[in-house]
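User: Fold this, then the next.

Assistant: Folding the first:
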Amino acid sequence: MTAEFIKLYKENPERRKIEEITRILKNGGVIIYPTDTVYGLGCDIFNQKAIERIRQIKGIKNKHLNLSFICYDLSHISEYTKHLDTPTFKLMKKTLPGAFTFILESSSKVPKILNVKKKTVGIRVPDNNIPREIVKELGNPIITTSIHDDEIHDHATDPELIYDQFRNLVDVVIDGGFGQVHPSTVIDCTGSEPKIIRKGIGDVNLIS
């Protein structure tokens, strides 16, 4: 298996290519795609074999599984999280789409999806039309993790170099231009007040 290398422009992703990528995801494919931060590794949340492939690619054991969901907007979040209080919803509405990951209490759906006990789930709505249009076409979120968890180097921001590294591990690498070297800002909203647990590209001054 050699991955397809598909060029898309975030301002106006080509519909035909979005449909092709979505078809691959529905068939259990794993893709690498651009976000508003680092490049992500993702699959359909409802395909267990594809999720297992991501675990193998990243070398993640179940108990260490920290995957987030890429959503198109806030409309589907209630399916995967417990009741959001008004301040948290307003904060998410103010900052999304954007370079933030929100840690929320997961609904009963999440452990079934991930096949592991998880009380929390990360939610992302990136400020990039490519993953958002893929999710919109797919009809449900995609599981996501960054392609590298350690320090991001230049070779992890260049889609052609990413393709060289992952071409035999995934089904599609999307060239959406150069990625960032810094990840999203992570906000834990499971307590009484939002807590910044990782400072990334997202402006922490918005968390107030």
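Now the next one, as you asked:
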Amino acid sequence: MPIDARYMLRALQLAKNGLGATAPNPMVGAVIVYGNKIIGEGYTSPYGGPHAEVNAINAVKDRSLLSQSILYVTLEPCSHFGKTPPCADLIVKHKIPNVVIGTLDPHEKVMGKGVARLRDSGCTVTVGVLEEACREHHKRFLTFHQKKRPYIILKWAETLDGFIAPSPNKRNAKPQPYWISNKFSRQLVHKWRSEEQAILVGTHTVLADNPKLDVRAWFGRPTVRVILDRHLKIQGKYHILDPDTKTIIITEVKDTVKRLKDIDYEVIDFSEHVPQQICQVLYKHHVTSVIIEGGGKTLQSFITANLWDEARVFIGPNTFGEGIRAPSLMANKVSRREIGSDYLNLYMND
């Protein structure tokens, strides 16, 4: 492996430490090399904190070496003031002569301006080292800024005979949780939630299951809850109405009488192009990634609209005989793995 690729790979490893904490900022990794030896490393702090380049520079004990070093960074250094000052200016200030970048930043305030700032200062800049891997790593951030929507992950569990829930008659006759996946799969879902910015479900999922939509079986900050409630049927002691976690309710009801304090309400037209309008709402709220967990109608609407990037589908060992059918997904399966008694299939939307 070429030497530049080796150090960029290390930057990518570091960058993954920011998963679930940096959004809506990208999770960047940075490595500083002097004389073929790493003298500083860093990754993006939780949102509002220092960027990867700042943390890497701060990790260097002898700052005099920076003027003879190479900085490897997975994404183009920013060139604008946000929560923090521009990283490009900091690199110039420390006279780092060589910068190797994985991929360019599509943010409208950057888009090559970081590279231009560095080159104008006399810095030698190389772009595109392990670019495909860097773009894969930054897929959430890139999707948000290039497609003006969040990175969309579909998730559901289905039985061997293709159902995601039992029939209402069965549920009413014997009220109880009807788990399809095992406890290990369910814990994995909580890990996934901690990695993404939002979770989205429909009205019937809330009314039938009263989910908390939290990360109690894992670690991480609370995830934004997005609920489709066309007629504002969700009233009373439902977990998703707990104001301690940011919740966005998407409805068509304009009357504010039923609205609760500390919950964000967004009004859309449910008669057409609902997935597209949902994406517009999430973009407005700076949500860079979302897991859509149900129900079947909601999942299918995004599939039909071809608005999805990944689908993660658990297959449990049990059968229902009848019930609510799993979504129909015509896509190539990328991988399949066992999780105890379950199988997990991964699909990518090419």
